[in-house]
Amino acid sequence: MKIWKAMVLGTLVAFTGAMAQDIEVEEESNMPSFALSLKYASRYMSKAKVFDTRSVMQGDFSATWYGFTAGIWGNYDFTDDGSLGRWSDNQVEEWDYYLNYEYTIEDVPGLDDGITLGFGWIYYDYRHTGHRMGKSLRRGWGWTDDNEINASVSFGCLLSPTFTVNHEYEKDWTWCSFGGSYEYAINENLTWKLGGTFYWGSTKYIGYMDMAGDKPARKNALFSFVADTSLDYAINKNFSVGPFMQGGWILDHDYREAVLRSDNGSFSTFNFVWGFGANVNF
């Protein structure tokens, strides 16, 4: 809880400083760059599946230096809804710690921004969740933490198509994503962003995600699609704010039926999230 309060306070201080004046950063500086974001969301949704049906605060802090990025992401539950278990109310439900490296191959014919290759690791810390999966949901066990490695390739052309493979090396499951994004500058301060991503999961991953208990969806499948859009207003070159929306569709029939049988909050094959966020870079 102290870490979360410090993160929120630090973000607000950085936002205030960014609003007051532009932060000067030399292009050829040897110093790392930092990014802070804080957003309110109407619910916690991941890959079209709802994990918390009530409002949450989500924050991210990262540092980038010569292609390496290290960061921490957190999800805070505002309510006593208990979608993630009896211990998740009014506190941090999840911390994610990540480290990755990106390298861009430039001067690729037909690609204005080349090809970017990424490699990374992420640790999911479900410290205050009150369920795990399947029958464990009713027994009140804690969700086990996850360790994933990932690799990605992104093409610097229209829609910025990106393919990512993620593997949990302790539980031996795999999930993949393929998506793209588009940005349109309405004026010098306002930018409209639109994106979409498909998700595929291995048999073990689908069984872990559906948490249906007696009849889980034991199959590999293209299981969901998420579309997102946002309006970002740049107060200056370092600070931006704006609303966002996400819509998630559960695509696979067996996975959809398993999710509908579960009692963790995903009672629909289509889920919607809205919110407002603020971002600062320095």
What does this structure look like?
This protein has 282 residues and is mainly β. The chain has a single domain (2-26, 41-281), classed as Beta Barrel (Porin), CATH 2.40.160. The chain is 14% helix and 50% strand. The protein has helices at 2-20, 136-139, 203-210, 253-261; strands at 33-41, 44-46, 49-52, 56-65, 68-77, 92-105, 115-125, 146-155, 162-168, 173-185, 190-201, 221-234, 239-250, 270-281. Strands 1-4-5-6-7-8-9-10-11-12-13-14 form a 12-stranded antiparallel β-barrel. The chain has a two-stranded antiparallel sheet with strand order 2-3. Mean pLDDT is 82; it is low at 82-88 and 130-142.
Tell me the series of helices and strands, N- to C-terminal. Answer: HEEEEEEEHEEEEHEEHE
Helix percentage: 10-25%
Reported by name, the CATH topology is Porin
Count of alpha and pi helical runs: 4
Separation of the first and last Cα atoms: 25 Å
* Radius of gyration (Å): 19 Å
Strand content: over 45%
What about the largest sheet? 12 strands, antiparallel, barrel
Total domain modules: 1
CATH superfamily heading: monomeric porin ompg
Structural class: mainly beta
Number of E-type strands: 14
Oligomer: single chain
| Average pLDDT | 82
Name the strands of the widest sheet in spatial order: 1-4-5-6-7-8-9-10-11-12-13-14
Question: Which stretches of 5+ consecutive residues score pLDDT under 50?
Answer: 82-88, 130-142
Condensed summary:
The protein has 282 residues and is mainly beta.
Topology summary:
Elements: H1 2-20, E1 33-41, E2 44-46, E3 49-52, E4 56-65, E5 68-77, E6 92-105, E7 115-125, H2 136-139, E8 146-155, E9 162-168, E10 173-185, E11 190-201, H3 203-210, E12 221-234, E13 239-250, H4 253-261, E14 270-281
Antiparallel strand pairs: 1-4, 1-14, 2-3, 4-5, 5-6, 6-7, 7-8, 8-9, 9-10, 10-11, 11-12, 12-13, 13-14
